[in-house]
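notes to self, project folder thing:

trying the whole complex as one job this time. last attempt i did each chain seperately and stitching them together was a nightmare. two parts in total, labels are on each line so i dont mix them up again. if this works i'll redo the older ones the same way
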Amino acid sequence: MKNKIMTAKAALAPIKSGDTVMTGGFFDGGSPEFLFKNMEGHSARNLTLITNDSGMDGRGIDKYMHSVDGMISKVYINYIGRSSAVQRMLKENPDSVVLVPQGNFAEKLRAGGCGIPAFYTPVGVGTVIEDGKEYILETAFHADVALVHAHKVDEYGNCYMRRAAKNFNTLMAMAADYVVVEAEEIVPIGSIDPDLISVPGAFISAIVKIESEAN
Amino acid sequence: MDAKELIARRVTKELHDNMIVNLGIGIPTLVANYIPDNIHVLMHSENGIIGISESPKAGEEDKDIYNAGNDLVTAVDEAYFCDSAASFAFVRRGMIDLTVLGALQVDEKGSLASWAIPNKWMPGMGGAMDMVSGAKCVIVAMQHTNKGMPKILKQCTYPLTGKGVVNMIITDMGVMKVTDDGLLLTELAPDITVEQVQSATEAHLIIADNIGCMI
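result (full assembly):
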C-alpha cells in the first residue's frame, strides 16, 4: 500500500503557480491551520482560492495565503468580513473576488465531488447574482488541490471529521485532484468504524500529522 | 425594557412548539434568551448543527462545536451534526420554519438588503441569501431607523439579499406584515403613535383596523 503519511512541507510541495486550491473550515472550526502555517515561504503564486470565509485577520489563511504578495489572484468566497487583505483585493480589482451564497457554495462543492457538472437553484433570484432566470444555473467547483482538516485519519486515508468541523472539509476532499488532509491523530487501519468514515481514503493523496508545537 | 429586548420578546410570540428556527446575528440572537419554557424549538446553525444550545461552561468547551459567528457553543441532546451541503439542503428543502434576520433596508414588497453598502462595506452574504430563499417564514427584527434615517423604504437601494422574501417586520416602534397590498401596521410599541411610525417610515403603511400593542 502506498504510504500517504508525510511532512506538511512535502505534502504541500506539489502546489504550483496557477493552481486552484480549496481550503476547508468555517472561521476557526475545522480549519486546516497547520497546513496554512506550513504554506509560509511557499513559492506558488497566482493561485485561485475556493474558501468559505477569509479566516481571521492576521493569522491562518489570512496571514499565510491572502496577505502574501502575489500568492492569491482570485477568490471564490461567501464571507470576507474579517480579512483586510481580501477587502483590499475587492477594492483594487472587484473581479478578483467572486461572492457565492453559502448554500450555493456548498452545493457547488458537493456537485464537483459527485460528478455533477451544474445544477439549478432558487437561491439568489432577484439579486445581483441573478442571471435572468427564475432559477439560477450554478456550475460545480473543481480544484487541483484541497487542504482539509480531520479529527482522525487512518493510514489508508479514511477520515473521521468530527461534529461541526465537517463543514466544507468533507465536500472539498471529494472535489479536488490532490487532497492533503491534516489529522489531529493518525490511527492504524481498522481502528475507525467504517460506518463513521466521513471521507473514504480513496480521495486522500497526503496525510499530515498536526504538530502542536508548530501551531 | 430596552428597545432590543422589546423586539426580541415580540419575536418569541411567533414561535410555536416543535419549530426549527435559524437566528441571524445581532438582535435576532437575543431571541434565544426569551423562549418560553413550554415551547420546544430546535435551533439550526448553518455551519452544520441542527440543535444548537447555549455557551459552554468553563472547561467544557469543544472546539468542534461552534456557531456561525465563530463562538463556541453547546448542542442539545437531540442535535444533528452535518457538513455544509447537508446543512443547506435542510434549508433549501424548506425544513426551517422561521428565520429571524437583521436588515440594512426592507421595502414594501418584502425585499431585503442586508449584506452590502456599495463602495463602503461589503462583507459578503454568507448564508443569508440561502436562508431567506428556503425558510418558510422570514422575520426582520431591527431598530426601526438608522440614526433617524428610515430603513423601511418604498424600494431597497442596496444590493438585495432576497426579492419579496420578508413576511413580517418587528421593530422598536411596531409590527408590520408584508401583504399583497403593501405593509400592514398591526401593532404599536408602548407609547408610540401611528403617526410617529409613519413619519419614521418611507414606505406607505396600511393601518390595521384593530391595531394592537406589542407587549
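what i see at first glance: DSSP finds five helices and 15 strands in chain B.
need to look closer tmrw
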